[in-house]
Amino acid sequence: MKGLTNMMEETVLAKIEQLWPSTNYCKCDKCKIDVAAYALNRLPPRYVHSFAGKLIHRFDASTTQMDAEITACVYNAIIKIGEEPEHDVEVIEE
Ligand SMILES: [Zn+2]
Prior knowledge:
Blueprint: E1 4-6, H1 7-19, H2 29-40, E2 47-49, H3 53-60, H4 64-83
Antiparallel strand pairs: 1-2
Helix pairs in contact: 1-2, 1-4, 2-4
Bound molecules: zinc ion (ZN).
């Protein structure tokens, strides 16, 4: 919706970027969207006015418990999608 931003979206995407490099799963755009959707469907949305800098700042500084919850959820999503990507996996022949 115009004028509204789901802060959770940006937070989850940043978290994917942070956690993904430590895994060997497929990192194509399709998987990235699947991981993001999987995590976002399991986390509460955090809508703010897109111009509300103060609110965004407050969200960034939110509790470490929330951060731990997001991290766990994104990590589960990475594993879930990584183990069963919703596209054909290319078999790399050696
Ligand atoms: Zn993929």
